[in-house]
């Protein structure tokens, strides 16, 4: 049975008070195309979300909210008209369609293709969404995390535990004949701790989730996340000043994929290449990475944070190969860029909400595994850095230059991981780093439901992933003089 909430239902769903059926949708599309548009689509969205924050031994906040609306897009050539409303009455929806249609002036009215309902995959079919679980049950999870973190070590002085959840119900209707409905659940749990000793203070965090149920906590309990965060914070109290200079760096599997996402992935989104502003523009068929590297964007992973059954343009996403054995073989496309390159959309048209037009966005972006055991990779490093957890970063899409801070990293000496380091930054260029990948582990991991990607003011949930990666040379910005 498709995922659904017993508490929250979209008014435009079948049987709802503002049900949108085929006839009504076709009328709106006809209005959107009435003054000569080439294409139009309707994006109906209902989003119910909530959050809990437990801090200093009390539940500091609990929230619930609902947003809903309709976005109408009309395309004429490379130009786009967009309008949205927050009501589902006929007059408001008609006004939005007429407003978006104004991008086109003149030309015959194009009739929409007869609609057909799409049969979608089931990548997050759940028996109960977390929003339907009683609030007290979720509060207990936060209390358990706080208690476990404080019990780990007496130097843990502060613990904050949080849970954010939502369900997003969509109806996408296009003038080329597609009608798709999807319900996208999402939950994220997190623990943040502060440790203090001898006037030294360190923060650390752990979290996870995805498009999943409360069953997530059967695999990774609140206590597990609390111990992960607390152990990291205590360990980093003994961190030493980081060396600076060009050296070998080993990236841990899983969340290190965020470097790939930011420094390489955005440059592979087709809108930047259509406009010629990406470092990868015009490079299809060229070697852009070490021949060890194969990079994919894969929306099909079961219950992953970045997975979707349908993109926000009504296209079913797939696993797309972007770089194959070092060679650039493709970009991530929405409808507009696919038309430009005369290709089929890859299902990467995504938007934050009904108030936004879609654009090419990543889903789950992964560097695939290699052949080496992770321990074997570490043993080859004479002196370098092991990067385990990433913080924030900055990237220039036009050339791939980046700066990333590390929240957990270690010195590697004579093939062994030794002292924890503080104040570490990685400075480099995305394409250059991929060319310097000299070893890849057989341990590819996918991030545990924590990342959100921002682009042009829009945020969407994503996944990242990679195996253990050895980079032969990268600039480490340290604090040791």
Automatic annotation (TrEMBL):
| Identification of the protein by name | Metallopeptidase TldD-related protein
InterPro entries for the chain: Metalloprtase-TldD/E_C (IPR045569), Metalloprtase-TldD/E_cen_dom (IPR045570), Metalloprtase-TldD/E_N (IPR002510), Peptidase_U62_metallo (IPR051463), TldD (IPR025502), TldD/PmbA_N (IPR035068), TldD/PmbA_sf (IPR036059)
Q: Which Pfam families match?
A: PmbA_TldD_1st, PmbA_TldD_2nd, PmbA_TldD_3rd
Instruction: Give the UniProt keywords, A-Z.
Output: Hydrolase, Metalloprotease, Protease
Q: Which domain of life is it from?
A: Bacteria
Name residues in a coiled coil: none
The text of the family note is: Belongs to the peptidase U62 family.
Does Protease appear among the keywords? Answer: yes
Q: Which organism is it from?
A: Pendulispora brunnea
Which residue intervals define the domain Metalloprotease TldD/E central in the entry? 132-237
User: Among its keywords, does the record have RNA-binding?
Assistant: no
> Residues in domain Metalloprotease TldD/E N-terminal?
40-104
Q: Where is the Metalloprotease TldD/E C-terminal domain?
A: 245-478
